[in-house]
Amino acid sequence: MSLEINKSYRAILAAARQGRFITYGEVAQASEVEWRKARRPMPSHLDRLLQVCHAREWPLITSIVVSRENLESGKLEGESLSGFVAGVRKLGVTVDDPETFLRQKQQEVFSWAKLAPDEFGMPADDEDDDHDDGGGARGPRFVQYFGPVLDALRASGGQAAPDQVYEWIKGNVEVDEAEIIGVTKGGQSRFENKVGWARFYLAKAGLIDGSRRGIWKLTTQGRETTLSSAQSVALFREIHAQFKASEDDEEAAPDVVAGHELFSDPNRSFWFVGASWGGTDDQTPRFYNEGIWQNGSHDKFTDEIMRMKPGDKIAIKASYTRKRGLPFDNRGKTVSCMKIKAIGTITENLRDGKTVKVDWQVLDPAREWFFYTYRVTVVEADPNEDLSRRLLLFTFADAKQDYNFWITEVPYFAKKYGAATLSATLQEFFETDEAEADEDEAAPPSYTADDILKDGCFLTESDIKDILARIESKRNLVLQGPPGTGKTWLAKRLAYALMGSKDVRVTRDRLRVIQFHPSLSYEDFVRGWRPSGDGKLSLVDGVFLEIVEAAKAEPDRPFVLVIEEVNRGNPAQIFGEILTLLEDSKRSREEAMELAYRREPGERVYVPRNLYVIGTMNIADRSLALVDLALRRRFAFVTLEPQLNGAWRQWCADRGLDADVVALIEQRMAALNEEIAKDRSLGPQYRIGHSYVTPVATTTIADARAWFLDVVHTEIVPLLHEYWFDATEKVTAAEGRLREGL
Predict the structure, then answer these.
(1) Which residues have C-beta within 8 Å of that of residue 600, sequence separation ≥ 6?
(2) What is the pLDDT of residues 14-69, one digit of tens each?
(3) CA–CA separation, 564 vs 740, rounded Å?
């Protein structure tokens, strides 16, 4: 049973003649369709009714169809109002003030209803056939395969390879022989192309799992769904309105037909590689002539090259940025670009860690790809990831890049280049396009462990490298220690080292810093409902999901989230299911989970491997509960100690402190920390860190004694009062020892 346009008209007309509004549920009931089955096709059904009424120059009768909550007021809100307005604008009608427009059209319907025809007069089979309905609505021919694709997968136990689906449909559905043997302009089978388009829409509708490679699998909803011809057309119109996918039967179905052969081998890998290093000439011609690809003189990518194998696909790329002359509206913003200069298939790995033999095809002219680009010399693209899969189809299957998808559907790029984006600044406008070289070969990191030492870290170089290695392997790390041991300072510089730069133009997009506190919630950190500018609630991503989307959009570059005072909030409450997703072994699309708040049914989220999380934790804060054990298992913990050592002494001397005063400060702080550590009410975690007695980098101390006395009076003594709040005599004695002789 499906929604029938004639019955819907009669139900709406009857309500209008009574001078009342009608609910969506009543419209469904008129066709004897349960609401759970009518909910999905209802928007496109009402849209068709709207189109026919407009074509007949009738009032827009769907304007009086409202939600049950608004039956008395007749209001349309949120998606209901925006959907109605969008449908009206598609008819070429101008809508300036949606609410005023709606009220006007509702009054027109009520006035017109008294003299309106009793019957709509559409053919009885209108909902069951795919043909023009008088309002210009029509579905493409591949819609006929929606139901058979679901039936084929059910007959195969819920999942099957594409070839199995094709064969089942040929054997169980009447398919024109001309369609089976015919080919598209791109050389693909017309039949397979149409089935591929059907699979694409069913995946967008949540009936097929779109994340699987080489296997089509029904979702739980898909197992329970059967589609009539009318329901298939309604489903197509709904998804088409959301995703703006092509209807051209000659265009290859995305991710299905072109990818059928490309992704048919689950063991095949896909590589993007550079061909020039550090000012050297482009090696592409040499590689083509010699039938090879070869790494530069260094051995940084030896592991990746050793994994390359015969049958893998490989492409030579060059990365740069552009601002002008783009095939889409970039709103004056700089766009990352990647030129694909040659593609090929690896035929042999010479096992020297540098060279592979390749059967090359040089692209002349080279093809330009935008937004989602690789800058590192050697990158293995993940065919299971939707964004990289689109790049692979563009590169190796000659697919087109859908610019609108990247600007509207990918949150990271939508914020940069979407309709709500502000135009470029005056400075950005005058910036010129510049090449963005393969960064790991043409430009060594500008910030390293050695730079952390130069900035004022008093650990050894070996210690810093060990910490960086631990972050690389675990992905999540907490710096813990007494107050004043430089936890936040070091966390940010570790982030710079991971990114290879502390340039604000790099870090502003790839480094985020947040502080946990008792009032912070999951809704703040991950996702939750928040008031919007129009007085309503909207689903808003928190800082964590924002940086997750950014990291997914630039998968070959490290992103870092620094969480200060990670134990000051309630980690289990703030992280929620993210605690599971943070685990290194679960950072893949296959481990994606549904969140507490979903933007659409079946939405799943995962944490990419290029996102690092660095937390800080003050272990001396007695007001904090024990850290959640689940958090401890997913983070590596490094304890920082007070560092009044040789490196600290040299730092102080370079900023004007006399050697004898530095020695005095060291001796007295060491004595105080020993007393604190032995105090049974405190302990080693309450020692006072070196940051309290370390001059800032840009300061020159004129009077070292006066400077230290000021630190004692305004910083150390107030802290001691907190420690020994019930023993003021201890504070007085400690202060006296610190100030003695100064």
Answers:
(1) 206
(2) 999 999 999 999 999 998 888 877 877 788 788 888 888 887 888 999 999 999 88
(3) 36
Count Cβ atoms within 10 A of the Cβ of residue 26 and give its class: 0-12 exposed, 13-18 middle, 19 or more buried: middle
Report the DSSP beta bridge partners of residue 369.
Answer: 338
Q: Is 355 exposed, middle or buried (0-12, 13-18, 19+ CB in 10 A)?
A: middle
How many residues in total does the chain contain?
A: 742
Cβ(563)–Cβ(614) below 8 Å: yes
Q: What is the DSSP string of 157-192?
A: TTEE-HHHHHHHHHHHS---HHHHH-B-TTS-BHHH
Cα 64 to Cα 23, 27, 47, 83: the distances in Å are 8, 11, 13, 14
Torsion angle of C-alpha atoms 311, 312, 315, 316, degrees rounded to 10 = -100
- Render pLDDT for 305-349 as a digit per residue (tens, 0 to 9): 999 999 999 999 999 889 888 999 888 888 999 999 999 999 999
Q: Are 354 and 372 in contact (CB under 8 A)?
A: no
The Cβ-side half-sphere exposure at 310, using a 13 Å CA radius, reads 3
Rama region for 398: left / alpha / beta (φ>0; ψ in -120 to 50; rest): left
Q: Which residues contact 630 (CB under 8 A, 6 or more apart)?
A: 572, 579
The DSSP call for residue 425 is P
Asked if 575 contacts 582 with a C-beta cutoff of 8 angstroms, the reply is yes
Bridge pairing between strands 216-217 and 270-273: unpaired
Looking from the CA of 315 toward its CB, the CA atoms found within 13 Å total: 28
Q: Is the pLDDT of residue 461 over 60?
A: yes
The answer to whether the CB of 468 falls within 8 A of the CB of 462 is no
Question: Sign of the C-alpha dihedral, residues 28, 33, 34, 35?
Answer: negative
* Cα–Cα distance measured from residue 649 to residue 344, given in angstroms and rounded to the nearest whole number: 58
242-247, long-range: CB < 8 A, 24+ apart: 242/204, 243/204, 243/405, 243/409, 244/404, 245/197, 245/200, 245/201, 245/204, 247/140
Tokens of 537: 């609630």
Nearest to 179 by CA among 160, 164, 161, 166: 166
Residue appearing with tokens 């991950």: 526
Cα-based angle 300, 303, 304 (whole degrees, multiple of 5): 90
224, 254, 399, 402, 405 from 390: Cα distances, Å: 30, 8, 8, 9, 11
616 burial (CB, 10 Å; 0-12 / 13-18 / 19+) is buried
Instruction: Give yes or no for a cis peptide into 608 (omega within 30° of 0).
Output: no
